[in-house]
Amino acid sequence: xxxxxxxxxxxxxxxxxxxxxxxxxxxxxxxxxxxxxxxxxxxxxxxxxxxxxxxxxxxxxxxxxxxxxxxxxxxxxxxxxxxxxxxxxxxxxxxxxxxxxxxxxxxxxxxxxxxxxxxxxxxxxxxxxxxxxxxxxxxxxxxxxxxxxxxxxxxxxxxxxxxxxxxxxxxxxxxxxxxxxxxxxxxxxxxxxxxxxxxxxxxxxxxxxxxxxxxxxxxxxxxxxxxxxxxxxxxxxxxxxxxxxxxxxxxxxxxxxxxxxxxxxxxxxxxxxxxxxxxxxxxxxxxxxxxxxxxxxxxxxxxxxxxxxxxxxxxxxxxxxxxxxxxxxxxxxxxxxxxxxxxxxxxxxxxxxxxxxxxxxxxxxxxxxxxxxxxxxxxxxxxxxxxxxxxxxxxxxxxxxxxxxxxxxxxxxxxxxxxxxxxxxxxxxxxxxxxxxxxxxxxxxxxxxxxxxxxxxxxxxxxxxxxxxxxxxxxxxxxxxxxxxxxxxxxxxxxxxxxxxxxxxxxxxxxxxxxxxxxxxxxxxxxxxx
Length: 530
Known about the structure:
Strand content: under 5%
Number of helices: 25
Oligomer: single chain
Radius of gyration: 24 Å
Structural class: mainly alpha
């Protein structure tokens, strides 16, 4: 074994990654508990831009090897990039024990604690760090984030004020002040906004900086009630965003049609024999900004439910197995292969979630929520392979949903969202796909409507719990007091009993939104079924 390992190491160091990988995997196949090989393969996969595959190998190696700063640094950086904050917290703690007194690591650890439902612990750490770094604007920003997520908006606002005074150019703090400020005025903010406008007029900024400033100015003027000026900057931000990528609506039409057509009666018959009866997952799906965070906050207030946030895992597993799951052909061999691939993806999904929960100590809950909105694309496949899982479809007024999407400077891939006609066309495709899933799986997908939740929250929450097979608990009515971390743009809303301000937020912008309204009303861009 040692000779083969040395051979793989030489190949690895010389850049022959594929050959080295073959040997590493051969060695692990004969002894899958060899931590040094796991560590080397993890680093190789990282070098090959296959970080998701590397994550469990890092976990195996770190659990079995003495603490190693280099290995831990690689693992922490990967976990942070993937948004795997449970792993990041665990490994950062080990790295901090090796590199004692590293202030940058401690700052990073505070941010990870906030992301991992541990705001009180983060606040204690931040207070300690501020004793030695009293002028650290980032620490005050983190402090404000923790306080806001604990529901203390007044203290959060003061922390964001302090952060801004220490570093007036920190655009993330400006955004936080606008979100959490409500009607409160901050004199320094009043000075900064004209400066931002002047910078845009003068030119010379790179497109990303222009875009970020435009979104901030739009938020600022919307809070002040100046719809025309707000939309002027919002349109600019979206134009700059849209100019940075290519999006073809026809490609989305084809993609959704393939997904829709893949669910045949013959395929479902094969899936039945490999279905996974685990009832733990509760999938919360829908368009972004449709109320998914609100529904997760309600459900995760129940004693039997752990809220896991927006997991990328189902999409990633679908990417790995997707070619097989969606393979052409209707003969028995192809159908069995497709069903087997779907089962493999589902099992891998559950393994990943349970490993993540074990890392965080949340594995004792009977159920967990996955509120990745875009899982609506795979909802039919999820319903088929997880016959006992619950699927909650969040709906909201179409114009309000799309306008809220248009206002977000999203990170990640939301390519349809920056042009009003494309946004409206995408929405109609989403409606078509959800209609198809509901037709194929009647009664399996529960509709949780935002406007109904606002107007009649108690009975709607009771009905939601009943669908999930959960006994009523009063804590679910007081979801805004739930101390779990909220990681999306909805954090300010779900810290209130019911957020009613957004029900007709688009009304002042009706004239500017007419292209969106027309696209949704006419149903342009729908899927053409043969």
